[in-house]
Design the sequence.
């Protein structure tokens, strides 16, 4: 365990924003993590890869626990392999490992920054896959009950970019995640049109695992969604807003105000998902918009980027301007995807 006072937090995030922590504790084993969380005095923030969090300029006046648990085990289970991975493992390293080992189910989630422990919290997803499709168990510390528990996929209450962990962030600390993966040379069914076109297959068909990973990485890099220290367009939290879930009537109102079809995807409860990037662009915000240290990515309108020398306050001001512009144009409220510590839109 490493214990530091007045420790800078910005270097631990992909945005490179935010002030220091009163106390920063980096933990490398489960028992120490549980004890540190249980005994923390005052406000507590659990930090993984720092890729989906926006920290305040004033910093965090409490204890920040950085999860650095490592380890991986595999067990056969019928026609699947159960892969149990510690929360501190790097997500994309895990995906690369599964592809190399011929295990299908995570390949379309290549290139997503962050740690394994964050994956069920956000129910991370991209290019037609999400972790809810493969997670079978999450080992977590329940701060409310004061014990380590194992939650089934149903108990995780997965939804679009959400889960029981995200709904009650002060209750749960993820320790490990178990995925059920399929030994196969080909991927799971390709469920996203852009990826299918890149692979030269139809939606619903399969492709070699490595080809799917390579295609996803190309697509993400083209949008600035793969972290690159030399590219300011990757200094972000990825997509800042989730795709709104609208009723058919709401979609019709949007459609009446734009030329060309509104990009939509089927959802549950009679609703459809609408492209947030489409709404942002049609509301008048182009790639590269907002001059200065913070603005919209030059590669993708869903990403808000820190070009250098900026502040969290400036980032949130841009986010509010985009949100308000979409609301004024279409009557649709965009919801932020990253966790905003000590603030809200």
Sequence:
């Amino acid at each position: 365990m490493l214990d530091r006072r007045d420790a800078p937090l910005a270097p631990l995030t992909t945005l490179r924003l935010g002030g220091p922590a009163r106390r920063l504790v980096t933990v490398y084993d489960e028992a120490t993590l549980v004890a540190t969380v249980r005994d923390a005095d005052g406000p507590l923030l659990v930090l993984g890869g720092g890729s989906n969090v926006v920290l305040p300029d004033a910093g965090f006046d409490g204890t920040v626990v950085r999860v650095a648990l490592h380890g991986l085990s595999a067990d056969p289970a019928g026609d699947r392999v159960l892969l149990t991975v510690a929360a501190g493992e790097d997500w994309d390293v895990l995906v690369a490992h599964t592809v190399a080992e011929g295990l299908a189910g995570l390949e379309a989630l290549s290139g997503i920054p962050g740690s394994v422990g964050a994956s069920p919290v956000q129910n991370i997803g991209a290019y037609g896959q999400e972790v809810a499709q493969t997670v079978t168990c999450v080992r977590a510390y329940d701060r409310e009950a004061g014990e380590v528990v194992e939650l089934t996929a149903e108990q995780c209450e997965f939804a679009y970019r959400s889960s029981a962990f995200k709904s009650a962030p002060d209750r749960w600390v993820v320790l490990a995640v178990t995925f059920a993966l399929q030994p196969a040379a080909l991927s799971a069914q390709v469920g996203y049109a852009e990826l299918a076109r890149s692979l030269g297959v139809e939606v619903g068909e399969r492709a070699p695992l490595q080809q799917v990973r390579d295609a996803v990485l190309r697509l993400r890099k083209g949008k600035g969604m793969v972290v690159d220290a030399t590219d300011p367009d990757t200094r972000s939290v990825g997509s800042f807003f989730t795709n709104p879930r609208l009723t058919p009537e709401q979609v019709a109102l949007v459609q009446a105000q734009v030329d060309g079809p509104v990009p939509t995807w089927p959802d549950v409860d009679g609703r459809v998902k609408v492209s947030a990037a489409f709404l942002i662009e049609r509301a008048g915000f182009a790639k590269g918009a907002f001059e200065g240290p913070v603005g919209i990515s030059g590669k993708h309108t869903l990403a808000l980027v820190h070009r250098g020398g900026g502040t969290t306050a400036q980032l949130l001001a841009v986010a509010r301007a985009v949100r308000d512009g979409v609301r004024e144009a279409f009557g649709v409220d965009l919801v932020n995807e990253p966790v905003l510590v000590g603030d809200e839109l």
